[in-house]
Amino acid sequence: MRVLDLFSGIGGFSLGLEAAGMTTVAFCERDPYGTKILNKHWPDVPVHSDVRQLDGTKYAGSIDVVCGGFPCQPFSVAGKQRGKEDDRHLWPEMLRVIRESKPRWVIGENVSGFVRMALDDVSLDLENEGYTVRTFVLPACAADARHRRDRVFIVAHATDKGLQGREISCNTEGEGTHANKQFTGFGYASGRQEWPSEPAVCRMAHGVPNRVDRIKALGNAVVPQLIQIIGELVLAADKEMNHEH
Question: How far apart are CA 164 and CA 133, in angstroms?
Fold first, then answer.
């Protein structure tokens, strides 16, 4: 399945989805540091700089998934929680790209405060565009990370072959997918179910800002291990809907 990755950051969504078996065809990221990371690890994949100028019609018929962790600042407890009044509220732009590109699947992500402030509106927007919507709150520790980090995930499918209220499950080829699976990538080794030791986080070195861009980027990023799980479930559900074996 082919992916258009919006609000790409350092590529956490694509890292997880590609580990699941998908392919990213384009990114959209305006942060210079994030763009450098994307260009380094995906040198052949174009990076659009501004979602507000991205013409989704160019990808109509050539992608299967639009994904994105649209900006969380309007909903985060670390901010003023101004919601739709915040000029960083860019869900309407993501919705426009979805409307123009017409993917079969949409995968979105945001902070837990989004549930109270905007989840119903976003779900209704997608339903009005012809998608069946499911939402989940998943913590990073569901993939054995050593912190909680609750995040809201929105998974939607075009209703021409809609989910019809069914649970998304993955039991293809006798191998179930679940949050405690052993990953062969992302620092996991066969037979281990714990994360490798994390380096100390230090914002200053000898009084000079140190690794600030990297720390900010990691703080904004999704957990690729969770995205891989979601990607595998989406692939399995898509395969089932198309009666493939």
Answer: 10
Q: Is residue 112 very low, low, confident or very high in pLDDT (cuts 50, 70, 90)?
A: confident
- Cβ 7 vs Cβ 108: under 8 Å: no
Give the neighbor-by-neighbor strand order of the sheet with 131-138: 47-48, 23-28, 2-6, 65-68, 105-111, 151-158, 131-138
Give the helix ranges, DSSP H, for 81-211. Answer: 91-101, 113-117, 119-128
What pLDDT, in 10s, does the model give residues 149-186? Answer: 677 899 999 986 444 443 444 333 333 333 333 333 44
Q: Name the H helices within the chain.
A: 12-20, 32-41, 91-101, 113-117, 119-128, 212-220, 224-241
Q: Report how far residue 175's alpha carbon sits from residue 68's, in angstroms, rounded to the nearest whole number.
A: 28
Which structure tokens are listed for 167?
Answer: 């649970």
Which range among 59-63, 65-69, 140-144 shows the weakest confidence by mean pLDDT? 140-144
Interatomic CA distance for residues 19 and 17, integer angstroms: 5
Q: State residue 179 phi and psi, 5-degree precision.
A: -70, -15
Catalytic residue among 72, 141, 170, 202: 72
d(C-alpha 16, C-alpha 231), whole Å: 7
Q: Give pTM, 2 decimals.
A: 0.74
Is 170 marked active-site? Answer: no
